[in-house]
Amino acid sequence: MTKTDTLLIENGRALLPGGDPHQGERCDILVQNGAIEKIGTGLAATLAKDGITVETLDATDRLIIPGFINAHYHSHDTLAKGTMDETPLETWRLLALPPQYPKRSREEIRARTLIGALECLRSGMTTVQDMVTLYPFDPEHFEAVVEAYEEIGVRAVVALQYADIRGIETIPFWKEVFPAEYHPYLSTAAEPDKKIDQLAWFEENYLKKPKAGSRVGWALGPSAPERCTRALIERTAALAKTYGLPIFTHIYESKGMALQARLEYPEHGGSLIRRLEQEGLLGPHLNLAHSVWLLQDEIEVLARTGTNVVINPLSNMKLKSGIPPIRALQDAGVSLALGCDNCSCSDAQNMFQAMKLFALMVHVSDPDPGPDQAGRALGAATAGGAHAIGRDDLGRIAPGARADLVLIDLKDPSYVPLNSATRQLVYTEGGRGVDTVLVDGRVVIRHGRLATMDQDALLDEVMAVVPKFREDFAVIAARVETLKPWIAEAHKRIWAADVGANRLFTGV
Ligand SMILES: [Zn+2]
């Protein structure tokens, strides 16, 4: 008898919960209807004895790991990888974020979503948490994002990024430093959109019409607390409760954001964390991206409320934001996830780079050796990301979990000899070893190539929209060049202020 919707992954070496983190366990994995049914040895023989034939996938010389969860990502600027060198966060905003750009075409939205998803899949990510800004908002653009994810086959949790306070109001000194003629250009990640109530549209068209069996799910994306009024935060909390949704937001990415809290929220002791606690947003459903400039008492509030933190090492370093207090968060018991953030500032959707920097940032944060970080980095990239979206069936290889799996080539020089699979994944691997990627038991990447779509045709679609993107980017880059004296002045004033912590090494 041939059993359909069943796949047997044979002769692999898997990293299992509670198993050997260095050598893994030799095993077969039986997948049924997209979920892991059984893990054991000799499963093929057992099936044969019962006269059952199933599709098989040979995992000889392959390390099987849970698919990574990119817990903080924005698909809106995937075409901007490699466009910048070291750039302070406040300058980067003016170069990279959608409110700076004229309206994009539907074709560009589709192409940029696909190329981002392809890069994520190729580096072993099976889930992306996409906090996407679509500005000016057009329902067709949202549909293009969702369709692209469904077509390529990655698991996606999509949140529209929104705000109701203008960017210029939320960055210290911008209003007073810049001449008034430039104020319309001083936007951030999301700007108030007066033409359409995005949240109401999203609720009506998507939240109220759940699609069974879709790998695309939803979250809510208030851009950052200082960009949202109390009413908008409370509306977010209520919607999250009604529909059981995770919430993604940004907190204290840069020193400027911490300073803004000190200046604008004296009634909350200058703390956005205390403000969010009072407004009912903290809790296990909330993902706080970055958290670089958290203070110790705020870390304790996050631990007490079970709030998740998503570390983004690549962008935090490139944008001169600083080193987040990872050890303090770990010691307090805060659940950590890992993200690769925007392509314009992380450049790579590569969880191996993110894991390595996560561990190395901890190493330079304390002169004394601390607990091993490789396992913690891998945990943040897998189970931590799953926890952040309330999914205990992702981020681990166990019966009942979804079969979101990555097969790594153990013949790659990175693993020869195999001293510790966990450490070599984190410290040695660059992404070269990712061979096969499965989402819901379906092969999406096979031997490094996209299996769900014509990869060459996808690249052609991307290249067709690149000239227009480059043309617009050049105009924006020239504008930012003229703004630099005032950007520098605001930057200098931010760095001269005391916010009660220092997260950037200054050599003193
Ligand atoms: Zn972000």
TrEMBL record:
Keywords: Hydrolase. InterPro entries: Amidohydro-rel, Metal-dep_hydrolase_composite, Metal_Hydrolase, MTA/SAH_deaminase. Pfam families: Amidohydro_1 (PF01979). Residues 64-444 form the Amidohydrolase-related domain. GO terms for molecular function: hydrolase activity, acting on carbon-nitrogen (but not peptide) bonds. The keyword Cytoplasm does not apply. It comes from the Bacteria. Belongs to the metallo-dependent hydrolases superfamily. ATZ/TRZ family. This is Amidohydrolase-related domain-containing protein. It comes from Rhodoplanes roseus.
